[in-house]
Q: What sequence folds into this?
């Protein structure tokens, strides 16, 4: 099933590529603006990576959903014998594979430029890896909620950004602990728990939102 | 056959019948039973719905679309290709769907009638956008389905030989 | 509409006598609370007269959270049973909740200036109240961006339900994030023991706010219900 969604998502490789480029470009721009000082870069890059990851998912996921809705493909999901929640889950899986992984690899590749140590890079990649499915789930929820509204994009950020806050803060706590050589396991476990909870909540809410999104 | 002037709610009525829209007052009944969660799923497994939105992947090649259908509905490639032959779109397999003309896309979407084995068909203005030859094919397939004791519910402005009319 | 008490008409009937009662209660609590808080109670030995802002601030935060809980409950009813009265109650409570959240933020900032030397610190409480304001804003924006209100209310209800599950998590993570960054040298808003002379005005103010909420809620709901009735009547013509 995930394979089907991957194949489907792969059709939109243009959007995916643009999203990734946006991520890389804005990362560069902001770090240029911050100046070459290593200390500042080291402090700010994790937060930056996270914020950009949130923004990219919040903008690209709903875009893809809107496209599907226009073709009437969401009807097809609902007319399947499968629970819509499973389809949404496989969408999240496909997005994590095609967008999440490249994003993490990007972040990892460029982290030496931002004076991150190896363990810090690893933590950043791990937190992104854990957080990404939850972000994607929240993005799907936002996209479905705003499907029939005027002016979706900004609205989604307003609705969903506050909800992503715990993921973001917990990952930064992890990073901070790693930087200070403290025990980073507790925030890490908490992050996993919160990510799982958020995914479950937004997928179940999303399957409801899907039902009334097609009632238009 | 569902008839009615523009804006009288034909499309909404058909979507209601598919169970996609929650009925506001009473429930949906099929063969004397109210459709609730479990039997709604069964009912939807027996139903083919082609609406105004064509349910095609615009960015896909026709071949990719076939692959997606194969996975989604467990259909053999041969029957898909046979259906494309009937609808006259088999020659465009390596074309992007968004590059096909409106009529060709409609034919592709309607080809579901030929490869998907369901007894209840709900079609929303299937004649729109088809050329004369396409309409003939469609009517032929509709008649064939009715002879096999299948049920077709369609909204249309074209004359079709039917047993019952609902006017909204 | 299975239950008699949940019918819009019943609501309209029962709130006609209740409205003035609740209004008078608001006035009573407000005068009592303000008198005790601003004039009768002693100034705080640490914070002086600036502490009196607390009588406006703390109850506002309480009521803001309470209204969100109310909103979530109504959203649940509205979402599961598509109940008209619950929908209207939910929509009507949002601006009031946002009002109290804003009041809490503004008074908090005003209090912070003399106490902390700055209007704003990224304190856990302030930040989570700010998030609450964003949640109210998101609810309202989502509701308003649908061209058909009956669709908007369902989307917004879903959002409120997701928000209410998330709120404790957000609060917890903000708190943790904060303890990592700031030494706990700030004066905490809640002291371990509150003198009764301070507690009474606090509770009175909370009561005043509560009844103010109820009054406004009734007025807004009645207006909304009557507007809908009018629309239906006009449509029938």
A:
């Amino acid at each position: 099933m995930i394979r089907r969604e991957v194949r489907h998502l792969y059709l939109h490789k243009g959007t995916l590529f643009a999203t990734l480029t946006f991520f890389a470009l804005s990362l560069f721009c902001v770090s240029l603006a911050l100046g070459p000082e290593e200390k500042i870069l080291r402090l700010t890059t994790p937060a930056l990576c996270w914020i950009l990851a949130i923004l990219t998912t919040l903008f690209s996921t709903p875009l893809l959903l809107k496209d599907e809705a226009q073709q009437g493909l969401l009807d097809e999901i609902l007319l399947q014998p499968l629970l819509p929640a499973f389809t949404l889950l496989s969408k999240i899986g496909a997005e994590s594979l095609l967008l999440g992984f490249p994003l993490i690899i990007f972040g990892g590749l460029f982290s030496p430029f931002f004076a991150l140590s190896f363990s810090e890079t690893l933590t950043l990649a791990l937190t992104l890896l854990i957080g990404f499915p939850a972000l994607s789930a929240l993005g799907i929820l936002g996209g479905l909620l705003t499907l029939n509204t005027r002016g979706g994009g900004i609205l989604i950020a307003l609705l969903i950004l506050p909800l992503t806050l715990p993921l973001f803060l917990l990952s930064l706590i992890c990073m901070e602990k790693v930087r200070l050589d403290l025990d980073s396991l507790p925030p890490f476990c908490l992050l996993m728990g919160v990510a799982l909870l958020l995914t479950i909540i937004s997928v179940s809410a999303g399957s409801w939102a899907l039902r009334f999104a097609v009632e238009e | 056959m569902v008839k009615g002037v523009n804006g009288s709610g034909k499309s909404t009525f058909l979507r209601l019948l598919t169970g996609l829209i929650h009925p506001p007052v009473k429930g949906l009944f099929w063969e004397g039973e109210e459709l609730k969660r479990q039997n709604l799923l069964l009912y939807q497994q027996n139903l083919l719905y082609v609406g105004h939105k064509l349910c095609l992947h615009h960015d896909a090649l026709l071949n990719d679309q076939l692959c997606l259908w194969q996975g989604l509905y467990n259909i053999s490639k041969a029957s898909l290709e046979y259906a494309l032959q009937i609808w006259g779109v088999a020659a465009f397999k390596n074309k992007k769907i968004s590059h096909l003309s409106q009529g060709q896309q409609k034919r592709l979407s309607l080809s579901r009638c030929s490869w998907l084995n369901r007894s209840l068909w709900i079609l929303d203005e299937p004649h729109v956008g088809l050329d004369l030859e396409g309409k003939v094919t469609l009517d032929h397939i509709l008649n064939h389905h009715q002879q096999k004791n299948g049920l077709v519910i369609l909204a249309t402005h074209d004359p079709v030989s039917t047993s019952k009319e609902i006017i909204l | 509409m299975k239950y008699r008490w949940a019918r819009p008409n019943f609501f309209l009937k029962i709130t006609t006598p209740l409205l003035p009662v609740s209004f008078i209660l608001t006035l009573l609590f407000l005068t009592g609370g303000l008198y005790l808080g601003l004039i009768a109670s002693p100034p705080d030995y640490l914070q002086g007269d600036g502490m009196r802002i607390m009588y406006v601030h703390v109850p506002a935060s309480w009521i803001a959270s309470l209204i969100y809980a109310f909103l979530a409950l109504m959203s649940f009813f509205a979402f599961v049973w598509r109940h008209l009265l619950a929908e209207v109650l939910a929509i009507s409570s949002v601006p009031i909740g946002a009002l109290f959240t804003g009041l809490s933020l503004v008074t908090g900032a005003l209090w912070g200036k003399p106490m902390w030397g700055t209007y704003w610190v990224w304190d856990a409480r302030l930040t989570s109240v700010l998030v609450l304001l964003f949640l109210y804003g998101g609810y309202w924006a989502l509701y308003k961006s649908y061209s058909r209100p009956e669709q908007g209310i369902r989307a917004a209800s879903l959002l409120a339900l997701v928000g209410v599950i998330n709120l404790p998590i957000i609060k917890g993570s903000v708190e943790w994030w904060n303890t990592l960054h700031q030494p706990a040298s700030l004066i905490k808003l809640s002291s371990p023991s509150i003198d009764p002379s301070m507690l009474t005005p606090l509770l009175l103010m909370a009561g005043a706010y509560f009844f103010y909420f109820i009054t406004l809620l009734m007025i807004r709901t009645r207006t909304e219900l009557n507007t809908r009735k009018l629309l239906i009547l006009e449509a029938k013509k």
The radius of gyration of chain C is 20 Å.
